[in-house]
Each structure stands twice: as structure tokens, then as C-alpha cells.
Write a structure and sequence with these properties.
The structure is a single chain. The protein has about 220 residues and is α/β, with parallel strands linked by helices. The protein has a single domain, classed as TIM Barrel (Alpha-Beta Barrel). Helices cover about 35% and strands about 20% of the residues. The protein has an 8-stranded parallel sheet with strand order 1-8-7-6-5-4-3-2. The longest helix is centred in the last third of the chain and has 14 residues. It starts with a strand and ends with a helix.
Length: about 220
């Protein structure tokens, strides 16, 4: 059964407390928080005050995805904000090995995200240090995009790499995930499904979460 991490970017920010209450009481597993700086990606999302407000009511782990330049600058900040997982982009991290160990030393689990054009083979030497591999199935920056079909093949390659290196890495998929493609993603090797519009845009969020988990 897959873990489900609803993307708060798709929540209603005028009633964010209500959406957090729903997530706390649902069968979803994590809070997925997308932090965008307008530089690494062409969009700006929300910052530390919003994360702090969510953390103050959250009863489930915070899965923080940094879509920002020089993410190492904010490792301790997000540790202090209560993040359990902190994911940085391969494309944004010049010294990725050092950054991953700094995340772990700050008491969090370390994640690496790959843009659609970035091959998983680039992680061959460090996959054993990665707790969470986030495979982007859309180009990062905006919600509601169409799913990139090559993602299935990329997940399969990632799973083979993880097994070959005897790593314990979880594979997370983010972008265009819904009840129609969840089964195929899990069959390819995905462990965690991030879904935004598919959950928060539904009239029955709980049913969507259950379908995603049991696909």
C-alpha cells in the first residue's frame, strides 16, 4: 500500500486551518509542502510563517520539498520548523553529498528531487545516503500540469538502482498523480504518491486518498 502525501499547494489558503484539520483526520500519511523561490522555478509559493502555522497544528510528518537555489542555507531553519523530510534538488545543489549529510545532522531525513530531464544514474554514488528520492513527473513550479509518461520508466530505473546498491531509499512521485495513474506508478516501484489537485479538487477527498493508497 502506497503512502499518500497531499500537496498543500493545492489547498484553499483562505481556509488552510480547515484543510489541515481534514488532513489530520484523514488516512493520508504526510503533509507535502512545496517551497518555491521564484528563481529555481518560475513561481513563488509560501515561506516560513506558513510552514510554522501548519506545523503548529499538523499531526502527521512534514514532507518539505525545497524548489529553491542554494537550499543548504535553510537546512537548520526547516529543522527548527519541524520538518521530518527535507528534499533538495540535484539541479540546485553543487555539493549534494555535503548537503544530504547536513540535513541528517540536523535531525531530518534527506531527500533528493530530480527534474524530468535529470537521469537517475547521476545518483549512483550517493543513493545509499538518500532517504527519499522525489521523481518529478511534471516540470516543477506549478500545480495542475499534465503527467509526463516517461516517469514510469524512470521509476523502474530508480528502483533497480536502489536495489543494486542495497539502499533503503523510498521513491516519491510528484506531479499529475491521480487515481487513473496511481496503480501503474506503484507497479513501477513508487512508494509515496504526492497529489494536489486530485485530492483538494475532489468533492470526496477521503475517497481519493483511499483509491490512491489501495491502487
Amino acid at each position: 500500500m502506497a503512502l499518500v502525501s497531499p500537496s498543500i499547494l493545492a489547498a484553499n489558503f483562505l481556509s488552510l486551518g480547515k484543510d489541515c484539520e481534514w488532513l489530520n483526520n484523514s488516512n493520508a500519511d504526510w503533509y507535502h509542502l512545496d517551497i518555491m523561490d521564484g528563481l529555481f522555478v518560475p513561481n513563488i509559493s509560501y515561506g516560513m510563517p506558513v510552514v510554522q502555522a501548519i506545523q503548529s497544528v499538523a499531526k502527521k510528518p512534514l514532507d518539505v520539498h525545497l524548489m529553491i537555489e542554494k537550499p543548504e542555507r535553510y537546512i537548520q531553519t526547516f529543522a527548527d520548523l519541524g520538518a521530518e523530510f527535507l528534499t533538495v534538488h540535484w539541479e540546485a545543489s553543487t555539493h549534494l553529498h555535503r548537503t544530504l549529510h547536513a540535513i541528517k545532522q540536523a535531525g531530518m531525513k534527506a531527500g533528493v528531487a530530480l527534474n524530468p530531464h535529470t537521469p537517475v544514474e547521476l545518483l549512483s554514488d550517493i543513493i545509499a545516503d538518500v532517504d527519499l528520492l522525489l521523481i518529478m513527473s511534471v516540470n516543477p513550479g506549478f500545480g495542475g500540469q499534465n503527467f509526463i509518461e516517461n516517469t514510469y520508466h524512470k521509476i523502474e530505473k530508480a528502483k533497480k538502482l536502489i536495489q543494486a546498491k542495497a539502499a533503503q531509499t523510498l521513491i516519491e512521485v510528484d506531479g499529475g498523480v491521480n487515481t487513473q495513474n496511481a496503480r501503474k506508478l506503484i507497479d513501477a516501484g513508487a512508494d509515496v504518491l504526492v497529489a494536489g489537485s486530485a485530492i483538494f479538487g475532489s468533492e470526496d477527498r477521503d475517497a481519493v486518498v483511499e483509491q490512491l493508497k489501495k491502487s
